[in-house]
Design goal:
140 residues, alpha/beta, Rossmann fold, five-stranded parallel sheet, 4 helices, 16% strand, globular
């Protein structure tokens, strides 16, 4: 039985585009009946540093495949596509909107690969939500 996306999740696992790893510490204790994952495509991430369109397409394709693999395993994935109406274009904006809508009991975060992203995700409106910083582990 999978989690009902309309119900408040116990934990919301933030999955960034460079963290497409099912062996990540963020998945420790993940319960598909009570927890959910969050992923977002945002324009900011493809324009911060110049990237070739082929690289962007490959990156997004990897995100789609990971999202679909999670859903096949009954994981509820809240996924924002760049072309979704109202997409703010930033990780902070998309995460803020999702957290306000879902009001999870706790956020699960794996250390971002970039300092800029880490700083962007330190959003004041998220402060009431306890965050657990999961260990970064590479694929085995």
């Amino acid at each position: 039985m999978s989690f009902n996306p309309r119900v408040r999740p116990r934990h919301l696992l933030i999955v960034l585009g460079d963290q497409l790893n099912a062996a990540s510490g963020g998945w420790d204790g993940f319960d598909v009946r009570r927890d959910a994952a969050w992923m977002a495509e945002v324009a900011e991430e493809s324009t911060h540093v110049w990237s070739h369109k082929a690289r962007i397409a490959l990156f997004l394709s990897a995100m789609w495949h990971f999202r679909d693999a999670l859903r096949r395993q009954s994981v509820t994935v809240h996924y924002r596509q760049v072309e979704d109406v109202g997409n703010s274009g930033t990780l902070a904006g998309e995460l803020t909107a999702t957290v306000k809508r879902l009001s999870p009991q706790r956020l699960i975060v794996v250390e971002p690969g970039e300092w800029r992203v880490r700083k962007d995700l330190q959003i004041p409106c998220l402060s009431p939500y306890p965050a657990h910083h999961a260990p970064l582990r590479s694929s085995r």
